[in-house]
Write a structure and sequence with these properties.
The chain is α/β, with parallel strands linked by helices. The protein has a single domain (about 10-215, about 230-255, about 265-295), classed as Phosphatidylinositol Transfer Protein Sec14p. The protein is about 45% helix and about 10% strand. α4 (about 90-120) links the parallel β2 and β3. The N and C termini lie far apart (about 55 Å). About 30% of the residues are buried. The model is unreliable at about 225-230 (pLDDT under 50).
Length: about 300
């Protein structure tokens, strides 16, 4: 099992940072992560493509995430369409499988490639969260989002350098005021809420070509109606990142299976329990959404 991809020191520092420098807690976290990986056969997850392709396309259209490019420092830029992701074309297990596959592909392929290109360890990425279209109905996705966030926090800690939040509607602003005080100082420093689509601020750290499509002009949002077709939309299965990822997983499946047919069905990964802070944040978020919903009714 190799979770450091040739950079063991940087990997250990991630766990240490996630536990505020407490060696005992960081060691416990690392052991629990390795146990989770072993129990759920995470090392094999990139040999298990989601088939048929129409099912995978449905997942990509409703779990909006992709790599739009790289920052000027060589960090991968991951775009996430928080507001318009509906998670309604497959079971929870398929969405979790897809998320972990992207994490593993990032760690095994994207980051090592970036490190080689830059000539130094690239172990983190930037994330741009598009809040366009965020509605109170997102409350129904809290359980799935809790599972995905907890998996990341406990098993892929400190992989994100900075979170940039763009296209912010009122509902996000209202929730952010309540949740921000609950976050650890370390986490708060990573989050930047930008004005509008964030284009001007983001162009200071990346070239125009690496901007996600929803940041290229005011009011563009995560919508799928892009002037250049789906190629510029990094959420689409037709984007080069997702084509490369899907081809990679299919190829790994063929190598492992030695020509055996690819099995249908999702991978069932055990969802780790969120820590006390995580539980408090999601409970607060749920209450805030319900309160906003009641206000709307009134």
């Amino acid at each position: 099992m190799n979770i450091h991809q040739g950079y063991p020191t940087e990997n250990l520092l991630r766990f240490l940072k996630a536990r505020d420098g407490n060696v005992q807690k960081a060691h416990k976290m690392l052991l629990e992560c390795l146990e989770w990986r072993t129990q759920n056969e995470i090392d094999k997850i990139l040999t298990k493509p989601i088939v048929p392709v129409d099912l995978y396309r449905g997942i990509r259209d409703t779990q909006l995430v992709g790599v739009s490019g790289y920052s000027k420092e060589g960090l991968p830029v991951i775009a996430i369409g928080v507001g318009l992701s509906t998670y309604d074309k497959a079971s929870v297990h398929y969405y979790v499988q897809s998320h972990i596959q992207m994490n593993e592909y990032r760690d095994r392929v994207v980051l090592p490639s970036a490190s080689k290109k830059q000539g130094r360890p690239i172990c983190t990425c930037l994330k741009i969260l598009d809040m366009s279209g965020l509605k109170l109905s997102a409350l129904s996705q809290i359980k799935l989002m809790t599972a995905i966030t907890t998996i990341d926090d406990l098993n892929y800690p400190e992989k994100t350098e900075t979170y940039y939040v763009v296209n912010v509607p009122y509902i996000f602003s209202a929730c952010w005021k309540t949740i921000k005080p609950l976050l650890q100082e370390r986490t708060k420093k990573k989050i930047q809420v930008l004005k509008g689509c964030g284009k001007d601020e983001l162009l200071k750290i990346m070239d125009y070509e690496s901007l996600p499509h929803f940041c290229r002009r005011e009011g563009s949002g995560s919508g799928r109606h892009i002037s250049n077709g789906t190629v510029d939309n990094c959420f689409s299965l037709d984007h080069s990142f997702h084509q490369d990822l899907y081809d990679y997983v299919k190829q790994q499946a063929l190598v492992k299976g030695s020509g055996a047919p690819i099995r249908h069905g999702s991978v069932h990964v055990k969802f780790p329990e969120p820590d006390t802070e995580g539980n408090k944040i999601f409970d607060t978020l749920e209450n805030e959404f319900q309160k906003l919903g009641n206000d709307q009714k009134i």
